[in-house]
Amino acid sequence: MKTFKYNLKRWSAIVLGGFLVISGIIITPLPIPTGIIMIAIGLSILITHSQWVRAKIRDLRAKYKEFSQKLNNIKDKLPKFAKKMIEDTDPDKKRRFFRRKRARSNPTQQ
To answer: In this structure, is residue 28 part of a structural domain?
Structure first.
């Protein structure tokens, strides 16, 4: 029963995040910047609950390194949810983690 509740909660969050992103894209041309806020909140929900979305955004940030660096520079000035979203999708952070993990699992023989 616990697994069912967990999956229901997770899929509800994914649907809500997707709805916010799509709604934000539709609303973006309006003069009030509500659409951009909706996209940011929707992406933070999706990144939190979906490995696939996290991996795709990480790949995009790896492809556009200049934009990724700018995000890393401003993350300390952003709200907590946005800072976590930027840190979770940082392509350099992922590489550093795997390098450390690989170094620990394969110590050099002397």
So the answer is: yes
Count of domains for the chain: 1
Residues 6 or more apart in contact with residue 57 via CB below 8 angstroms: 43, 47, 89
Q: What pLDDT is attached to residue 81? A: 80
**Burial (CB count within 10 angstroms: exposed 0-12, middle 13-18, buried 19+), residue 54:** middle
pTM metric for this prediction: 0.69
User: With left for phi above 0 and alpha for psi between -120 and 50, is residue 48 left, alpha or beta?
Assistant: alpha
Give the C-alpha distances (Å, rounded to integers) separating 35 from 6, 14, 19, 48. Answer: 29, 18, 12, 20
Q: Is residue 89 part of a domain?
A: yes
